[in-house]
Amino acid sequence: MAMIAIGWPNWRRLNQEGIVFAIAILLFAAAAIGLPGFLTADNLVAIVRSVSVLGILALGMAVVIIGRGIDLSAVAIMAMSVAWYLQLLNTGTSDGLAFAYVLAGVLAIGLFNGFLVAYADVPAIFVTLATGSFVFGYVRSQLITQDAVPVPQGHWVELLGGVRFLDIPVEVFVFAGLAFLFFLFLRYTKWGRYIYFAGDNPVAARNIGVPVRPMLVLRYVLSAFVALIAGLLTAASLHSINTRIVNSTLLYDIVLVAVIGGIGLSGGRGGVRNVLVGAALIGILLNAMTIIDIPLLYQNLIKAAILLGAIIVDGIINPRDEQTAQQGDI
Amino acid sequence: MRLFRTLIAAATALAVTAFVAPSFAADDPGPAAYAKSLNGKRVMLVPLAMGFDLAQGWAHYLKKEVEAWGGTFETRDPNWVVDAGAQAITDAIASDTRPDVLIIHAPDLNSYSKLMKKAQAAGTYVLLVDNPANYPADAFVGSDWDKLGQLEAEAAIKGCGDNSSKKIGLVQGDQANSSSLYQYAGIMKVLEKHPDFQVVAKPDSNWDATTSRNVTTTMLQQHPDICSIIDFWDGDATGASAAIRDAKLDGKVFLVTTGGGEKAADCDKLNDGTYGAVVMTDLARQSGDMNAIIKFLLQSGQPAGTSHSYIYTLEKATTKADLKPDSCWDLKALQAEAAAK
To answer: Residue B167 — φ and ψ, nearest 5°?
Structure first.
């Protein structure tokens, strides 16, 4: 089952990924014909760029979800780690030391998430919800003085935002590079394969000798680290980071990208390609709706309707696996 | 004898009165009445969040004023969550230390209407600041957002010039917040008088800088000859400016926005050319207005909800050309001042 889902699309059996991919292609074709200026190189780059940070976060989320977990602290880690980093820089801490602190903090939160889920057996949804709130509350109240923290002038983060190859912004390359690395990891490494086993049936995976618990910890650390990268890219582009983003719908958008692409929340299914498909749909959709000038309220409605549709169709085509489903699944 | 005594007493009384009267005249009844009405009164500010320049500026100036006249000043931080704000207001009204004046920064037109009514019924004066709401508070202190929109549009038209494409893009906030809706109405009023100028796109940023960047990028690709963009808040206009920078249109697109006149957020960015014009609120004066109306209400003796005044702050579109050293207030300096105490 898992093997089929991560191979090339199985066209004989239409799954959610196939459906979403088809919708994305249809939308793309419709927009290319109907919307002037849609099918230009610049706009296509803008589409990919607009979902790069979202896609990077979704990669981290995907790995966690495939292993039958979820990381609701990703956005808090992304915003607060970078806000703290910039605050340290603005108050005169040396760059190396500031980065070391922040990296240590990020890895510690990832380890803590993983430890509680793997060894204390607390459901991931509660652990990460709590650590997310904690990270936000602690950094916001103790370490930074206001919501928006600017990047110091001339700092490498600011310069990073201006980096272009062939007129393509740097975050597109980072997204592509990370997607490729995650693909290699999930597809060709032993630990990558183990994630599917653990996600599909944790008890069986443990019985055949897979180090289920240490790997669980690794996934949350990976997710936290990816969040830091996403945060740095956001700050690079905007020359500041606004911690208000923690209150936004970004977290749901990340889960949306992963789930809409066909990564089942019950674990063991999906891969990098699903994230790319999900990100492509969201990117094309948002871009087309912006070109048509649809108000934000309707944009959210349309986005939600498409998600709901994809989930319903998936529920009908791919019913829950009663053998491995268990209480407490999300 | 009795009569004589009475006469003496009367004469003495008269003499004493005559003697004392001048000192009565020198004793101004004002301070006593002032202290009697104001001493120990509680003022509470519930902004959208305490983490941004406007709220921190208001809190700084109000705290100084309120504590100077013997009152106590408190803030609550709902951190952009409407429910948390509602909870803070509900708790404040119900508590033993119910504030005498509640200053509310409303998230939208309707959310807090019932709570404001409750507060007034309990005897608390309600001030609305910055964002209007569909409720007759005791006073509204803040921008006339319609007028502010008009100033932005005039700045944009001026920034474009007569020989430009005359195409303007808007990055609105959302479709629920009064500041966004009225700002839009004001902009359109001015543009109606200039039919040669047209709005080519008007996406929402949802007050988020990344969204602002993405919609502005799309807007600039669809209409590369846009001569001016009006972003509805300096909090997310950093996104619009990033998109302009990325499209290599710096200096060609005149970015207009509005904000609380904080140095790093507004003046520095006017100075480096990121923003073409910013319609700035004079925050110290706005806080002063709030303080004046609070002092008036507390001394008026009128029950809460009796009168409804609109105290609009003077707004002005500032460009790099008319920047002065005192055009902005400096949040860092205020924080340093607070830390030094």
So the answer is: -105, 130
